[in-house]
Amino acid sequence: MLEDGIVPPFYSDKLKDEHNSRMPSALSMNPFEYYIFHFAYHLTNPWLQLQLLENVWINWETVYVQLAHLYLYHFLPRDNSPVLPIIGPYVKKSPPRKIVHSPETKRVQTPRLLRSMILSPSTAHPQGGPQQQCLPQVWRSETIVQVFLDFWLEYTEEEKITSQPLTSTLSSLPRRHSIHSGEHIRLVRAFIKTLHEFANSAIGDRSAMDELKRIILPSVQGKIYTFLRKAIHHWPLDSSFRLILEAWLSFIQPWRYVPELSYSPQGRPEDEDKGKIHDPQRWMSFVANNLLAYTSIFQQLLPRFMRTDLVAPKNALMLFRVTKVFSQPYLPQMLAEAETYMDDNITRSKISSNQWSAVARQQILELEGPSYQYLPMFSESTVSQIVWFLSIIKQAHLTATSIVEALEKRNTEKKFIRTIWEFFNGEEHSNDDIGLAERKRVPGFLATSQQQIIEIFQIKVEDIPQVAIVADQEYHDSILSDSFCQSQCEGACVDGSRPGVFVPIQEERQHCRYIEYMGDPELLPVRSNECEILVRWFYRVCEVINSKYNLQITTFYNREDFVGRLTKKIIQPPTTVRQLPKRVNGGFTGGSEKIIPPRLSLRIFASYNFMTAFFNLFYSLTDHRLWHSWIFIYCQLFMDFLYYHWGYLRALDHEIECQ
């Protein structure tokens, strides 16, 4: 910003110029300003913004987040308490500098929050009037707001970064991203909420702190709007969009952050009626000054919701949150009234109409420029889009309802058999990683959103085209189809060289992640569907047999006749075991591979699946006679199997000796 020649008044007395070029080379700051600069820069430091695989829904309780909240609450008090300790700002008088603006760069500027006549001690009050005490009271609060605003809400787009010529110093910096971290957006929302609470706590006592509360929102609202609009434009189409959406909803609802309103630990107002608009005239000035934040961003969100999967619970909830806010009492009327003031064809008799018209036009000129064509939110073109959007919501509602009914029906049918199956095999994983309880909320969200949109735009039911809207059958079938993990596991089981598993991942967008075990398959940890005692016992038995008859098993496995084919059905094939490099002192060990020869494996008999299938078969064939012990029969079958293998191996041994 300063390199572009844009010097806000807040920095005008802090810049140091080079003697030759007269360009700013350094900032002169006191210790508090120096610390706050580095604290705010930590959140946007490109070295700390390396995009890793981050789950934005994890609410990190870091020291930085806790400190940021403490600084906001202390230096922007909502209870009209003074900011302690009261100390001077160490102001160094410097001659006024000429502010040069770059004609190529368009940027929302934030002037000094308080007028210089209030901040600067006046020599006309030698007796120490109240204005001499203003600077020690508010200079830290102004610094916090200005620095956080310049660092946290300065939106830098990637294409503008890449188009600029890089110096040797800048070329070594990592690339900044247009998508901010979840921690960044959460702190921006906390900053916006604190500004609302701070501004709404003004009591009109004509003090410097009260003056700061009165003018703080008009000074920063333009930059907040620009940040939100650009962040919404670049944010991907996924559920993490709710972070920036909630920040926007917090900005356009200042009536939710009044001093008399208290919040529960869950973040909800304890008295819902106090968080609504009761006096439209009190908030009309804010709505008119931030008309673009309501109407322009709403129209920006409309095509986004049209492309979003509204059957997904998180997306349906986001739509419901937006329609719930805009359907609040008095808000649609206030927006429509503010827009009518901008229509020159409508004659008005109210004196205030000229005031709101000038305010809205000036805001559009400052934020979007003279070439911006404002499209009213309640215009015919927008309403036609809304009518088409209602049909999309209706189809999503039918699809969500059909999915819920199908899931309930599937859970009801064969409930007993499914319970037994899940007891031995674990819970079934499907393509749908969303629970039935969440699915049941979607039809209610969509139905309520549809009704609220009709009320906001006052659309008549007969104006909605009565087209044949049916549920999306393809989407319905994809949710209820066999699991992705199961189909991939079936494909992996065919390939014996990939003894891996697919582990469901709930916190990421993909459903499964393939994890491959590269060691000895017989040394795999005991699975949940296996009996630990039998696994260990079978392993010891097979280890003795394989070590004694290793040569005979390999010889008969490699035969091409009937005996060789029979051996391949019984004996496990050769397996390649890989040993990965391990970290040791001074480096890594080398990787290695080892081929395990054909071997006998009885581990399959230790699985609960085999025992359950055998018990069901035996129980159905024994005419339900309870005196037959399935454990005894299972052990007898296993002994017969061992006897068969023992005889088979003895025959192999005898044949080799004869040769």
UniProtKB/TrEMBL annotation:
Parts of the chain that traverse the membrane: 600-619, 626-646
Membrane topology of this protein: Single-pass membrane protein
GO biological process: ceramide biosynthetic process; glycerophospholipid catabolic process; sphingomyelin catabolic process
InterPro entries: Sphingomy_SMPD4 (IPR024129)
Molecular-function GO term, any one: sphingomyelin phosphodiesterase D activity
Compartment list: Membrane
Presence of the UniProt keyword rRNA-binding in the record: no
Swiss-Prot/TrEMBL keywords: Membrane, Transmembrane, Transmembrane helix
Recorded GO CC terms: membrane
Protein name in the entry: Smpd4_1 protein
Organism, scientific name: Fopius arisanus
Gene name in the database record: smpd4_1
